[in-house]
Amino acid sequence: MKFVRSTRRVFARATVLPFLVRVGIAICGLVAMYTAWPLDVAARPYGGVLGVVALYPAVAPRGRAATIAALVVVAGWLVATVGFGAEIALWRVLTLATMLYLGHTLTALAAVLPYDAVVNLDVVGIWLARALAVVLISAVLTVVALGLSADLAGGAFLAATLAGLAGAVGATLLLARLVRRA
Fold first, then answer.
1. DSSP reduced 3-state for 113
2. What is the DSSP letter of 37?
3. How far is the C-alpha of 13 from the C-alpha of 1, rounded, in Å?
4. 171 is a domain residue
5. DSSP 8-state class, residue 175
6. Which structural domain, as residue segments, surrounds residue 90?
7. According to the model, what pLDDT value does residue 152 have?
8. Residue 47 burial (CB count, 10 A)
9. Which of 34, 13, 97, 26 is nearest to 61 (CA)?
10. Cα(113)–Cα(119) distance, integer angstroms
């Protein structure tokens, strides 16, 4: 009963832009989830559980919900490609990357934006414009990298991949150290 009262209060006090941010999180989560998982799995009763996991970050943006949803999406991608032999298509990769990034950045915005806040449209608009710029640049770089990967097959491609992984690990360790210091 207390849950119903608090839910009614939230819906009565919610303002438009924070609500739309949470709707964006839900849409991104659902699109990512059902793009990643194979149709054979998503059409079964598990599909409802996948939907709940995808919607959870929109309901509770603070905490680990977005991380759990992203991990379930990645698990779905692995199940589809390794377990079911799904073709790795560029549109699926770009869709998943876009939806995961937009869902993540909108969840970060919703985590600091109370559901009843009065927010100027420019705040959310600039936030989305920056996120869409990152998505566009990433998509272009992905297509260019895929085009170059055919030319760099063999030892050079392996060396570049290992150097990139080492750089990513190094950057992660540096950021973790800086966060602990702060």
1. coil
2. S
3. 19
4. no
5. H
6. 2-119
7. 66
8. 15
9. 26
10. 9
